[in-house]
Amino acid sequence: MSLRGGDPVEIGGYPLEARLGSGGMGTVFLARTSSGRPVAIKLIHQQFAGDDEFRIRFRQEVAAARRVSGAFTAAVVDAAPEAEQPWMATTYIEGHTLAQHIATKGPLNGAELRRLAIGLAEALRDIHRVGVVHRDLKPSNVVLSPEGPRVIDFGISRAVDQQTLTMTGRVIGTPPFMSPEQLQAPRGVGPRSDVFSLGTLLVYSATGRGPFDADSPYMTAYQVVHEEPSLGAVPVALRAVVESCLDKEPKRRPSVDELLVLLRDLPADLGGTDANGVGAGCTRDVITQHDFATRATPAQTAPTTTPAGPDTGSTGTPIGRRLRRRWRPVLAAAVAVAAIGGGVAALKAGGFGGNSGGDKGNSVAAPGAALPDGFEPWRKTVQGGSEDIPDELRCVARGDALFCGGGGVVATRIRALDGSRVWTAKSPGVPVQGMHLVGATDDTVLGYRFAAQDAPQDPPSEVVAIDANNGRELWSVPSGAQSMAVTGRTQDAIVVGSAVVTVDASNSRFEARDAHSGEVAWTTPFPAGTQCAPVPVGPQLFAMCAMGAEVDASEVRHPTLYTVDRASGTLGGPIAVDGPAVPMGVANGRLVLLQGHMEGTALAGYDGVARVDPASRQVTYSRLAKTYAGTPGMADGTVYVSGQTGLVTALDPATGRKKWSRQTSVEGASGPVAGADALYFSSATGRVVALSPYDGKPLWTTDPQADGLTGEQGASPRVTVAGRAVIVAAAKNTLFAFDAQKPPRSG
Questions:
Q1: Looking at domain 96-333, which CATH architecture does it have?
Q2: What is the CATH number of domain 1-92?
Q3: By the number of CB atoms within 10 A of the CB, which of 110, 415, 488, 570 ranks highest?
Q4: Per-residue model confidence as pLDDT tens digits over 482-520
Q5: 3-state SS, residue 291
Q6: What's residue 55's pLDDT?
Q7: What is the pLDDT of residue 390?
Q8: pLDDT of res. 81
Q9: Is 52 a catalytic residue?
Q10: What is the pTM (predicted TM-score) of this model?
Q11: Is residue 361 classed exposed, middle or buried when 0-12, 13-18 and 19+ CB atoms within 10 A define those classes?
């Protein structure tokens, strides 16, 4: 809606465009940053500005919102809690609230309802992981964005370790969506209060009514504390899960991690609402299958003489209580199962990630590929130079050896058959995000080493060569670090054949060395006034360069490509490319780049494909049907974009047309890595999905296996394939391996 008379023209230097809404505590406006990025600004009503108690609460809101900014919430852009009239600016999330959607279009059902349930549970997981309890999860605080649900408004949230502030004489919250403990003892509210609210929210989403709705707020509050929920119209498959969330006793509710295990294995369409039968959908391993079976019709089961109420099965035990007993051993088994995570693929016949492995690329399982002799599923953690700097590793496979590096690990050699370590070289300093293993040749492994904070005389970062057999350091050289600004990829050094090409410490030239001996083969200065990064194109080598001013401003809009002679380092003629552009890999002998769509200085996604013919130096462009946000990758001549909330889209690089799109349950995934008739995508949590490359059909999905951040964009692929073994790298230097034909069962 437009601005009203009396509304300010700007807040904190942000010009206002429209009024988005107004509530009891403040008004929210749509504004723009100086670069044109849309933001939502919450301006506190003047009457509260002089209330010291309220100012404390608003400072807590700002602090909580800053802590949880991520893939499922609105990130804080700016705030002034001490201003005469306090305000906070967050990223603007386009979409209707859940309340608006239900009011105009009615309740959700099937896959749409399941996606909402999983998305909200993922949001709460991220909120709880940073020690915050939301305490006001309700339909008007959920925005249905194109990328999935976002949770907003932390006005009454608090840190778990923070004393609860209650405004004198007021109940803080919204009774239909509050937990019993919130109404009775708000100072004791913890994360499982949010789980209760999520249960009420899912009932509302499925039916248009809350599970405790009554004629007045007072009766609603009474029913929340004392009465059983009304769940008759909730789909059977979801009902048992929701009932467990709505237990009056917080300790008997599932945690968010437990809840995600239950939700992810529900039938895709959630089935029907017949209380005497299972819904129409089915999955490989539905955790609540036993509970549904006990509710079969008389024709399906033998009669029982045990009295049973309307919400009990043949045992007479409430379904929610049976479910609570069942999920704990299931979760214990899931945690104990051999792990999954994410490694990295090098340049293959299609795409490249953060590592280079020479012309051979990453080992890929072919039909009939075998497991390493004596292989058993395994899980290992590789300790780096500092326990305070856990990171993700990236790996390449060479025969029965696995070489990994990243964070506090320059490189390590691991036996693919059992995960045992042969040697490890550690890095003492603070790593640069996204810089992992450089790559490997047949006899040499190359990684990055970062200087310790108490050793300022050492180079900030070095490329280190290590003997692949015994772990002995062969040589090292200071390294530059401009590739991310130029190419959108953190790839400051690459392996090409038996050589390694690096950028010198002054960011002024390329240096090529024999990977094992370190002998310099050639050096080539960058074109005048530019910063450059190496780009592998199959067996060929390109340089991607940008003017220094654009690099310094992080706005590379006019990159230039040059072919590089591998023998002499001589640069070919310049090839101008419309940018920003991110190199993806090779298709039909041409270098494929995705063109970025910018909103101010922020990358909003990708809206075009550029193809460069090295022979003719011609560039052809294709527009995409829409802007695709997420992490890009390439395999076997197809480009893929993995959205933050699990949507994977396959794109034809020759035409820009969408081949297929598939919603998965792996949020924040990177990939793809190609195996035998499968594409692997994995997140920092160690959750992996295998998709058919032909139509994107999910082949299998594993459970999360590590406590990692979700919603990360731009990460290099985390999966490595060695024969039939899938090796995955996850957060905190965790590695997992399993048989691709016998993946760990989800749930």
A1: Orthogonal Bundle (1.10)
A2: 3.30.200.20
A3: 488
A4: 788 888 888 889 999 999 999 999 889 999 999 999 999
A5: helix
A6: 79
A7: 60
A8: 86
A9: no
A10: 0.57
A11: buried
